Amino acid sequence: MKSIPTFCRVCEPSCALIAQVTDGTVTRLQPDKAHPVSQGFACHKGLNYLAIHQDPDRLDQPLARQGSRRPGEGQWQPRDWDSVVTDIGATLSQIHEQYGPDAIGGYIGNPSAFNALGSQAIGDFFMAMGSRRIFNSGTQDCANKFAAGEAVFGTSTLHPLPDIERTDCLLIFGENPKISHMSFISIADPMAKIRSACQRGAKVFYINPRQIESASPKTGDVVQILPDTDLYLMAALIHEIDALGRFDERVIRDHGSRIEDLRSFIAPYSADAVASVVGLGADAIRSLADTFSGANRASVHMSTGVNMGQHGTLCYWLLQMLSFVTGNLDRPGGNFYSEGFYPAAKAGRARLDNVFFPSQHGEMRHIRGALAGNLLPDMILDDDNPIRALVVIAGNPLLSVGGEARWRQALEKLDLLIVIDLFRNATGEYAHYLLPSADMLERPDLNICGLGMQYQPYVQYTDAVVTPAGQRREEWWILSRLLQAMALHAPMLEQDPPQPFARLDHMLSRSGLCVDALAQQPSGTAVLDTQSIGRFYTDFIQTDDKRVDCCPPLFADALTLADQQFQALKQAAPAFRLINLRTNYMHNSWYQNVPTLKRGANASNSLHMHPADIESMGIQDGDAVEASNEYGRVQVGVRSDSSLRPGVVAMTHGWGNRQTPGMRVAQQHPGVNINALLPNGPGSYEKLSNQAFMSGVPVSIQPVTSVADRDASTKPEL
Ligand code: SF4
Question: What is the pLDDT of residue 718?
């Protein structure tokens, strides 16, 4: 048996692991106790990844579809790589020639962000193709941060992290670190750091519609806000801090611009004005503003619960303002940028003139090269030059983007759907070709995902722990072969033998490193001694004038809309608002086929509801209800959950595998696709960032017994 150091690529901490390998088979994953950064931390999801690696339903060879392309229909014919690449290349070339590059689209799923060579090859592939119709999962959970970073700091890749170990007060908006392990900050075991901060007297507040698992007497308190009203709470906090005279005028004068425009926006949002909309008492808001601005060192963070609302970009802007105007940006105990092995802040520099362009789906923009995922079905179904071929790489948009019914129509209409994945997932059920990819234990890699967002900067290289089984291949190789089949330039295969790490070696050279040298280090890791604090306003910020833009003009329309929506919320609030519930048993649509995680209460997803709401509807825990809105309807079991506010309901996403026979466990435990209740198409996403509206969505809830009495013509779609 061999013990091989590697690292997890399920989420951002990239925790170091030891893989035990016997006779070429991985038999166990354990935390790497000797790793200098993660120090033996790895979570339940990372260790359970072994079940995905070993899953008997994984794809082992290329498959071509014959006959019907409806889920579960047609035949899958095994193919060899040479013939399948030749066939796909010929069809892509024909579509490219006949309809132009924009007739070929791409959807890139979240696992690609954790695949250093794969993400590089994806860039090469679509650049060579010349298509501008690229979509990715970022527009489901984080595109707002890129958009706000560009507008406020001049770059999409500058995201100041909270200095948890030195802070005296930490505000965490829309994140549950105990479950999700934090996003846009790469940090192993964040709860240990939060716990020790609280032990030395720091105040930690989780602003969240749920009494989340992260909160406890030893780890901080929940401020239980109404869903998707964070913008107004943030505005009120800044308003009250200004009223207390606690803006740091010297920092603002030296490093800010347009502060009066910020003051003008927050002027109407006093604690008294927002209290009823955000669902908190005005005194509680003033007290929070006082505690935060009165702390010697205060820091902020926000994540998907806020990103996925109506105003994710504006929220991320005001989050930065909370830090900046109080003088807590770029100081110990406040927020700081963490430079890694390569100067990534500069790489994300963006110009903001003419970001929008006209289209038949309305004005739109690219965010880091990607269009709004919510527009993809429209570009297949209702477009003058529709997308005819779609390449899906490590993604499952059918279950991860809003509007399931529209997605099914769109996928069925495609002339060519190529899915590169570990599994024949729900999206793959519509594919013409399924191409089997190597997984994280079957490929060499570099932990590039956390670059610029690591609490402790370091870089780790891993070899493939085992060789890919069957005909599985790495994504970079598959995409490069497809380019060659189209007679296009494939940079990663141009040398003989191929040197796929050449560009990463070039990046590593900025820190005096290379892959070969890293491979010789214990755990393949070099810890970087980067001093980042004190360099924000000189080295990292990328605005032309090197100043923080306190109220970017690009936001003007969005600010007007936010004001209008505030007035509407004051008049009438929805009866129920739907939020997303993250658990230890799913991770987006990963883990849907892991039998050990489909037991007891986790064998399906439920609609979580406050006990008072259940009682007022005259139903009981476990009864079926119908959740519906203008976008769709689902029937689902209800689960009593006193952690929610009354009027707030929550469900876990990534479920809905009734028509996914290629994943047998998932199909036995299909659950319900929450995204059937989410909007799709023009108007269903934040124009500034392409971020889909996925949280705080109004829904109606009815007992299924009432639904049964309804007109048969409105039979619910399951
Ligand atoms: S926290 Fe994320 S990276 Fe770490 S072991 Fe868990 S899933 Fe993997």
Answer: 33
* DSSP label at residue 124: H
Smallest CA-to-CA distance from 17 within 458, 25, 51, 28 is with 28
Kindly report the protein residue whose alpha carbon is nearest to atom 7 of ligand 1. Answer: 46
Which runs of E-coded beta strand occur in 414-482? 416-421, 433-436, 445-446, 458-462
Dump pLDDT digits (tens) for 184-230: 999 999 999 999 999 999 999 999 999 999 999 999 999 999 999 99
**The pLDDT of residue 585:** 82
Within 13 A of 714's CA, how many CA atoms are on the CB side?
14
Of the candidates 675, 699, 100, 123, which has an alpha carbon nearest to the alpha carbon of residue 427?
675
Q: What is the pLDDT of residue 460?
A: 98
Could you write out the DSSP letters of every residue in 540-600?
I--STTSSEESS-GGGHHHHHHHHHHHHHHHH---SEEEEE---TT-BTTBTTT-GGGSSG
pLDDT score for 715: 40
Pocket test for ligand 1, best of 17, 43, 186, 453 (most atoms within 8 A of CB): 43
Closest CA to 677 of 657, 660, 700: 700
Exposure string for 514-550, b = 16+ CB within 10 A, e = fewer: bbeebeebebbbbebebebbebbbeebbbbeeebbbb
d(CA 32, ligand 1 centre) in Å: 12
Q: For ligand 1, what atom is nearest to the CA of residue 14? A: 3
Instruction: Write out the two tokens for 46.
Output: 């990372």
- Is residue 33 within 8 A of residue 53, CB to CB? The reply is no
Q: Which atom of ligand 1 is nearest to the CA of 15?
A: 4
Please identify every stretch of the chain with a pLDDT value under 50, giving residue numbers as ranges.
710-718
Residue ranges covered by each domain of the chain: 573-714
Q: Can you give the length of the chain in residues?
A: 718
In angstroms, rounded to a whole number, what is the distance separating the alpha carbons of residues 508 and 513?
5
Question: 646: helix, coil or strand?
Answer: coil
Please tell me the distance between residue 437's alpha carbon and the centre of ligand 1 in angstroms. Answer: 21
Is the CB–ligand 1 distance for residue 671 below 6 Å? no
Q: Are 665 and 617 in contact (CB under 8 A)?
A: no
Half-sphere exposure of 600 (CA within 13 A, CB side): 4
Q: Which two tokens stand for residue 599?
A: 């037991």
Contacts 24+ apart (CB under 8 A), 702-708: 702/617, 702/625, 702/626, 702/628, 703/617, 703/618, 703/619, 703/623, 703/624, 703/625, 703/626, 704/623, 704/624, 704/625, 704/626, 704/635, 707/626, 707/635
Q: What is the pLDDT of residue 717?
A: 35
Q: What percent of the chain has pLDDT over 90?
A: 92
Omega into 377 within 30° of 0, i.e. cis?
A: no
Least Cα distance to 186 among 422, 511, 452 occurs for 452
Whether 8 lines ligand 1, by a CB cut-off of 6 Å, is yes
Closest by CA to 453, choosing from 193, 187, 188, 197, is 187
Amino acid at 32: D
Distance 257 CA to ligand 1 centre (A): 39
CATH, domain 573-714, list 2.40.40.20, 3.40.50.450, 3.40.50.720, 2.40.50.320: 2.40.40.20
- Residue tagged 């032990």 (tokens): 199
Taking the C-alpha atoms of residue 549 and residue 320, their distance in angstroms, rounded to an integer, is 10
* pLDDT attached to residue 708: 53
- For 151, the token pair is 């507008």
* Through-space distance between the first and last CA atoms of the chain, rounded to whole angstroms: 48
**DSSP-H helix ranges across 465-501:** 475-485
The predicted pLDDT at position 573 comes to 81
Please report, for the chain, how many H helices and E strands are present, in that order: 26, 27
